[in-house]
Amino acid sequence: MKKNGFLWICALLLMTAGLSGCSRDDDDPVFDDRLYKELLKEDFPEGLLNQTTTEFTGNEWGFANAPLWGQGYIQEGNLKVMRNSLGAIEAVDFTGAPAEERPKTVSEFYERYFGEGVIDYFRCIQHTEWDSGMHFETHDYYQQYYKDVIVKTSSGCISFIDDLMVGGSCDYLPIKDFDVTPSFSKGVAIEIFKSFMKLDDYDENRCELQIVRVPEGESFGPRLAYEVRNGLEGLVIDARSGRALYRTSYDWGL
Q1: Which of 81, 108, 123, 174 could be joined to 103 by an S-S link, Cβ 3.0–4.6 Å?
Q2: In this structure, is the dihedral angle defined by the CA atoms of residues 47, 49, 53 and 54, taken in order, positive or negative?
Q3: What CA–CA distance (Å, rounded) separates 221 from 162?
Q4: Which region, left, alpha or beta, applies to residue 106 given φ > 0 means left and ψ of -120 to 50 means alpha?
């Protein structure tokens, strides 16, 4: 899916930012990693360390493929709107709209186009400013979290020029009553990753608990998962069943 204008720039910046912040140093919430061999032997289904295929096909955006892509911007009154194949809004371009039609705040944008309270699930992870001498621009990048667990690829970008909103985007994954407790530790996830990728050793601390979006019919649904990476290659593993969900690659040719 190709997105133009500010949305494409936002996506690249968010993905780049994700590379530098994907490792976590907090203690594992469930098991001591030293017990992972015993856990694998006693509690995991036979063949878990011999997986050769994934449940889904991954893509260049770092999540599982599903038939839910943006259809490009279309003119709707004074606005240009991008919707996915189900009609849900992904981005709005306000540059052709009068000031009175534009949201005044980030909260107003999220509430108007994605629902009341949606902004509460997003955190501002980056703020940039640029003063050209003629115009003053700000760009705020948002990331969705649920119970302090990052929701992978669910992010947004809001841009202002001279205090007028010029564009906003949001990939929001609705989540309700979702358990974020994994069934096994990061150590187990790393062993699964090493087996799947046929690695003898693994030195990097690149294992993160996430909520990822996976296909559910024509839409997406949440799945608790670990993403384990070694360099640019990664594997997303179901944090409850231990099954390989899809592979990821962070080589965009940049």
Answers
A1: 108
A2: positive
A3: 38
A4: alpha
- Asked whether the beta carbons of 167 and 7 are under 8 A apart, the reply is yes
Nearest Cα neighbor of 228 from 250, 252, 253, 254 is 250
Let me know: does 110 contact 144? Beta carbons within 8 Å: no
Q: Are strands 164-170 and 149-161 parallel, antiparallel or unpaired?
A: antiparallel
For 105, phi and psi rounded to 5 degrees? Answer: -135, 165
Top-confidence residue, 244 or 35: 244
Higher pLDDT, 84 or 74: 74
Q: Rg of the chain over CA atoms, in angstroms? A: 20
| Residue 191 burial by Cβ neighbours in a 10 Å radius (0-12, 13-18, 19+) | buried
128-177 tens-digit pLDDT: 999 989 999 999 999 999 999 999 878 899 999 999 999 999 888 899 99
| pLDDT tens-digit series, residues 21-57 | 333 344 444 444 444 444 444 455 555 666 777 777 6
Global pTM?
A: 0.74
Per DSSP, the three-state class of 90 is strand
Burial of 111 (0-12, 13-18, 19+ CB in 10 A): middle
81: which DSSP letter? E
Q: What is the pLDDT of residue 211?
A: 95
Give the pairing type, strands 233-238 and 219-230: antiparallel
Is the dihedral angle over the CA atoms 119, 78, 6, 63 positive or is it negative?
positive
Residue listed under structure tokens 């974020």: 180
